[in-house]
Amino acid sequence: RALAFVVTVFLVACGLDAGAEGVNQKETEIRWQRWSPELFRQAKKENRLVLVDFAADWCHFCNKMDQTTWQDPEVLAAIKADYIPVRVQDEIDTALAEKYRRYGRPAIAILDGDGKEIFKKRGYQEPRQMLWTLQGVVQDASENK
User: Rounded to an integer, what distance in angstroms lies between the CA atom of residue 42 and that of residue 44?
Assistant: First the structure.
């Protein structure tokens, strides 16, 4: 019982939900969406930014980001608060992946609701770096309105 209490306190402190079945999966993973005109309308309506993750199955550092950066509770909270997460997968979104091929893999881009690119970064980013990036872009975007 003491261990269950400690785990529950830890999960609540991290902003995660602990139910009878354990950790709520909805809170511990990113719900990547596919690129669509609708998600940009949603971003405008909700005053959010669009975080685009460019990834490929063959990319070692893309997979590493899936295991580290995209699992970090603080990164997850920042995305949930201010972003609509979109994944462009080379093997699935071939035309879009080709359009952004020059970004390399892994890469991220942050777009506004009009689809205007306001930030891009290539290469692996550790969780702390990603958190600072996400927070900084939101702060800059709100200051420049």
Answer: 5
